[in-house]
Structures are given as C-alpha cells and as structure tokens.
User: Fold this.
Amino acid sequence: MRAGVVVTGTEVLTGVIADRNGPWLSERLRGLGFDVAHVMVVGDRPADIRAALDFLAAEGMALVVTSGGLGPTADDLTTEVVAQFAGRAMVLDEALEGRIWEILQRLRRRSRQLDEAALRAANRKQAIVPEGAAVLEPVGTAPGVVVEPASGGGPVVVVLPGPPRELQPMWEAALATPPLRALLAGAGTYEQRMVRMFGIPESELARSLEELAAAGVSFEGLELTTCLRRGEIEIATLLQHAAEPAYEAFVAALRERHGEILYSPDGSTVDEQVAALLSAAGATIATGESCTGGLLAARLTDRAGSSAYVAGGVVAYANAAKTALLDVDPALIEAHGAVSAEVAAAMATGAARRLGASVGVGITGIAGPGGGTPEKPVGTVCVDATTDGRHLGRTVLLPGDREMIRERTTTVALHLVRRLLQGEAD
Amino acid sequence: MRAGVVVTGTEVLTGVIADRNGPWLSERLRGLGFDVAHVMVVGDRPADIRAALDFLAAEGMALVVTSGGLGPTADDLTTEVVAQFAGRAMVLDEALEGRIWEILQRLRRRSRQLDEAALRAANRKQAIVPEGAAVLEPVGTAPGVVVEPASGGGPVVVVLPGPPRELQPMWEAALATPPLRALLAGAGTYEQRMVRMFGIPESELARSLEELAAAGVSFEGLELTTCLRRGEIEIATLLQHAAEPAYEAFVAALRERHGEILYSPDGSTVDEQVAALLSAAGATIATGESCTGGLLAARLTDRAGSSAYVAGGVVAYANAAKTALLDVDPALIEAHGAVSAEVAAAMATGAARRLGASVGVGITGIAGPGGGTPEKPVGTVCVDATTDGRHLGRTVLLPGDREMIRERTTTVALHLVRRLLQGEAD
Assistant:
C-alpha cells in the first residue's frame, strides 16, 4: 500500500525553515509497512495544496498525511481544502469549540496580549471540521482530523498541525482512529531494524553484500537501505515477522565477515554505547580539544543526565592554552608539531588529570580550509583516548570540508573511547 | 514564473537522511524571482520520478530542478527519465567520457580498491546524456545537464547530483547556460534582503508591522516572510529594483520603532558581527561553559580562520572543574548557587585569564530535563561577557527542550559579546 505526505507552509517551501515533519512521517509510515512514494512540500495556496492531493490520489496512494496550515488565521486552509477534496462539507463541532476555548483561556492567563474577540474568532475557525471526520484532540490549540472520502475511492487523509511537538503525539492518536485501524489491518506489520558499522567504505560494504548473496545468504523478505551518516554506515532493514530468521542469519554473516566493524548489531548509537560504558564503569570523562573546538564536549553533553559522567573539557586552540590548561610540554609540541599523536596523547592525559576524570580524550588536527601542509594535509586528525595509563590513539585523514572533518572527528573519538572502555589499548 | 524541485533518493524519501537540497534550491530560485510552487521528494523508481515531472509540467512550471540519481549504478536513472520526459534520445558524449575518465584516474591513484572494468562501465554510463543538452562539468564524477523540451511546451529541466557540495557549484554553472539565461531574462530581477532582530517575540513584531501599515508605511512591492531561527527573528524580503525606496523606508521605520533590537539591518548574522568585532579590535575570546557543554566554543570555531581570535575555552560541568580550571571561588558557588549571575561572571573572568584572552564569556544554567527548582526552573541561564574589567550579564528564562535551550543560550551569549564589544556594560 502506497502513502504520500504533503507538507504545507510557505516558510518551509521557501527554505526559510527546514522541514522536520516529512522525514519523520516517512519513517513512521515505512515502519508500518507503507510504501512512501512521494513527499511534497507546497506553499499555503489552496490551489497548490489541492493539486498535490489530486496528484497523490491519481498515483494510487491509500493514505495521505498533511502537516501544517491549521492555525487560526485566514491563510490556514488545509482542513478546508482536504474537506473539498474528500467531498465533505465543513461543519462546526460545538463540543470541540468548547474544548479549544478552555485551552485558549489557559493561554490567556499567561499572556495579556490576546483580546477576547480575536480569540473567539480563532476558536470558532479551528472548531469547523469536515463532516464525519475523526477529530484528533489538540496538543497546542489546533485539532487535527482523519478524513475518509465521502464516496467511492480515494485516500484516507490525516490532517496534522505543523509544529513537530504537536504533530508527533497527534500522529499516534490518529493511529487509533477507526479509518487508520482499518487501513493498517491491511498493510501487514513491518518492523524496521538497524545495524551500524564504523571503519568501512560504502563501496566495500556493497561488495560484501554481493558476495554474501553469491555465497547463498538469503535476502528474501528483507528490504535493505544503506546510508552514510556522520562517518558511519547505517543499514536499515524493513522486514515482516516471517523474515526474522533470514534477518538474524544476514546479520550473523555480516558480523562474521566484518567482526568489530559492525559495532552495533542492535542499532544502538556509539553515543549511547559510550554513555552506557561510562555509567557502568562509574567512570567520568574529560576532553581536550583543538580542531573540534568543543564539538566533542557538546556531543557528549547533549544527552540528558550526562552530568553524571562528563566532568568537562578544555578547548585549547592556541598552543599556549594546550600548555597552560592541559600541561602539554612545549618541547613536545616543538619536537612533533601541535598536530601529532604525541600531543593528542598528552592532551588526553592532561584533560583527565586537570578535570579529575578517569577517562581523557585528546584531539588535535587540521580542519581547514587553511593550515594544511604536504605532510599534514587538511583533514589530518590525531585522536587519543586514555584511562588508567592505557592509551588508544589513531591518526586519520578525513575527507570533506571543515564542518564534515570536525563532525567526523567526534565520531572517531567516540569509537576510540568505546574501544578503550571495552578493554583495547595500543 | 513558477518553478518546482524534484529531490530523488530513497534514503531521503524514507527519512534516513535529511534533504538539504530542496530548501537550498528553493531559496536560490526564489531569489531569482521564481515562484517556487512545489518541492517533491521521490524515491529512485523511474515511474515515480516521471510522475513528479509530469505533475510539475501540468501545474505550469517553467523550470524544474532535480537533485540526485546521477551515480554510476543501475538504479541511478534520473537523467534517463528526464530525457524521456523531454522527448530526447540518450547519446554518448565521447569528449565528456574522456574528461570523466581523467577524474576517475585521479581518484584511482588515491584508492587501490577500484578495478578497471567497473570504472570503465561507470565512466561510460555517466557520459551518456540527453541529445542537445547543455552539460554541466562534474564537481565529483557525475555531470549534470540542462534539458529543454524537444518540441512544444514544457519546463526546462536542470539535472544536478545529490551531494550538496557538488550540487551547489553546479547550480551556479547551470545559471550560465543558454536555456537558463533565456528563462531568467523573462523572470525579472528580484533580490532577497534580510534583517535580523533579537529580543522581541514574533507576535509583537506582527503587531508592529500592522501598526506601521496603519501609520502609512508602504509595503507595496515587498514580499515579507518572517521566521524564528535560533531564538532570533529573521525578516526576509523579496523585492524588485523599483521597490528599493519602499524597502529602505520600511527598514528605517522598523529601526526607529525597535532600535537596537533590529541589530542587523544588512542581514549579517551575530556570528559574523562578533567575528568582525573581535578581529577589528585585535581581541581574543575565551569561553567558560557549563550547561552548553562546549556548544558556544564549537559555534565560535565553526568559522574558518577563527583561530585568529578564539583562544579556547573550558567546559566546566562539575563545580570542582569551575574552581580548578576557572578559579571560581567555592564560597561564591556556596553563597549564590552554581547557576547564578555571580558564578557566570566569575567563569567569564576566569576563562579570559586562564586562556590569556582579552574577552571572556561565562555560561551557567539548567538545560534540563532534570535539575530545575521552583526558583530556578529548567531554562534558567546566566550568561556574562567581560573585557577590561567591564561586565555585561543577563539571566534569562528560555523556553523549549534541552537542545533548544542549549542552542538559544549560545545566541544570547553571542549578543552579549556583540554589545560588550560595541561599548555597552552593566
């Protein structure tokens, strides 16, 4: 069964803000077994929204999900366009009007700017819904609807608000409505699984998959998608329950072939694994960063609760800072250069000691665009992780621009920490 | 004139990776005066790509831009589908084959994994282009094409590769091709201008715009879009040359009304302004961060050349680290709490002193989800900027989740630094 998504909103269409709903809905739909054929971004013009719906219907979608255009103002017209598309009149739902009014009253207590007449008008507009639609209770102030065609064929349309924090819970609510339950009963129950690999080029993985197939490993019932993300390869697989043994056999074969490179057979991220390893060991971590300028510390601390195992870090761009705050011996910098395995190791040791942490990470490299030399071109990065006097260090040459080099360096560093905590050392 | 974008790629469609090309192309097209009506994301299936092209043609687009599907493998079919759509045969361009071969030879010298036969096949496939198309030289290995309909009506189609670092320069090259020059001559010359504001809610700006209109300020010929980004408001305006005086008058009126809140009448970002102010003053900056965990340092150093004015920073999550690395007096933390204006000021001073910088920034706050109290709820953040013994500090209560709070805090901090360097102090 095919499904399509229509994301409305002039700000999204014009690229002023990035759409998060299209990819999110797509992933959910795919997980439910739908074949997502088109995600369309359109502006606020009713004729363009209608054209998108007609196109998706003509292309045979069983389900269409829209996001945005449910606000109280005159240019928020998605529900009305969907009602026309489905051949349904718009009617006032008085009980819904009352429930939205209660929400608006609570908001008004927090803000003195809203005047009563404008509120009443907004309230009424948002309570007018397609006849016979299943109403999705508002998470913000805008209700969503699930609309079936009034007669004959055509897709079921789920109409959701634009803000992701409203859309996401309301999508869950939509799944429980009778029209969607009926559709889902026909879609089969697919699951998405993920494995992650680090340290292998995509072309080599492609060859491995071909060779596994040639060696008789079955991909029957498995729909694989591979992609590069943050310097890692993710293999997402869509499967039905019956293909479970085939999936297990496939992952086992891949693991036998690539060993530790397939570091995450259960789809957990390296961030999650490092957090779990640090917590399990009762360890704390400290960072000494040069070219990444704080990105590794920021990545470690973007997890809630990270204060339990992140002691802190030092961003030492200047050599003087490496010495003053991380105790890197100036003679070491003189002898090997600021970008060297020796300096990375000294930064790791210094970070752990200065911040009183049990694990230290040091990063020094050339993110570019300037600063490269023939021996140490842009992309050269030295990373070191240390605990208890043990070290694990790597010097890598990363491709891409400044942003990519900086981001991939944080991935390299997290994998070194993971392997160090799993007992490896140089 | 209307334009549409078709983004191809199963990974993008399924939400595994986020599309960056749709918004980027949309913004460029809009800046050239096109009315971008639809951005469509489709998978790699030829029938779905063709359906999208047919839909955009039926909707009256004068120009369609595609991204992705130009690789060497069998499922990279965008160029072929576009050729069929435009009624053109696919022909081998031997000169192009030779030029791509040279690129592949260079790549092969860097990697021993590629075998000759596979390379030759890939080379030939990528050199087969629609008859009569303008070829866009590859930035990676895949050439793009600009294709006009073989006869009669239909849009001009620009076919670009998926990786943004290839697509973006090749789009610039496409603009210089005869078919696009002819189209652009008809599109009128629009320009996009931007002003940025910090410290005003969107609802208040909306009221201001209404009141300016009521007071006789003309918006004739100006197409305004406002949006919230990273805690700031951006007002993007599309205008033709004749509306220049109206635009100037509008910005002047807005500035008169909101003064310093409209901090960027020329669209420059606060990041750019801080970098310019630091460079002009020959100053260096150091950061002392708690809840942002290195994000401010990472944001300051994501600019190329930032090593000239960024000394470094300290991420001091633990109180002990605030004392050991930033010289924050434990008694100060005891008296006022770790999240306090006093501690933020001490962190700013300590960061500048320890890193030998002339400007220091201190950040301490509660990013959540845990750690909030009735007096200091989640979102409470104290920021301080200092230079030459002068301080500028603010305690703010930021909305949103952990990620939003951390990101907005870096915006608050950059504005404090900007104002400090412009001479303000508490």
